[in-house]
Amino acid sequence: LAFYCRLLKVSRQGFYDYRKRQGRPWKHEALANIMLDIVRQDPENDNYGGRRMYEALSLRKEEQHLAIDIPSERTVYRIMERLSSNWQWPD
Description:
Blueprint: H1 2-8, H2 12-21, H3 29-41, H4 50-64, H5 73-86
Helix pairs in contact: 4-5
């Protein structure tokens, strides 16, 4: 194990922390699902940027009384980036 950690330039503790986190669900999974629902609602929603999606999430939370914390606009943008690189926005 020490050989591979040196080869990959990671510490043993970092490796074991990674292994511990590996099975956990993504902390923004619920928020990402709501974002995908917003995009599926209307074909024009697929061009939303971070600010528009943040506003749409705020409206959805208010209208449906959702018990979910909405992070900053920047974090919403990062979630959108991750969704677009991993899952692709629905057509």
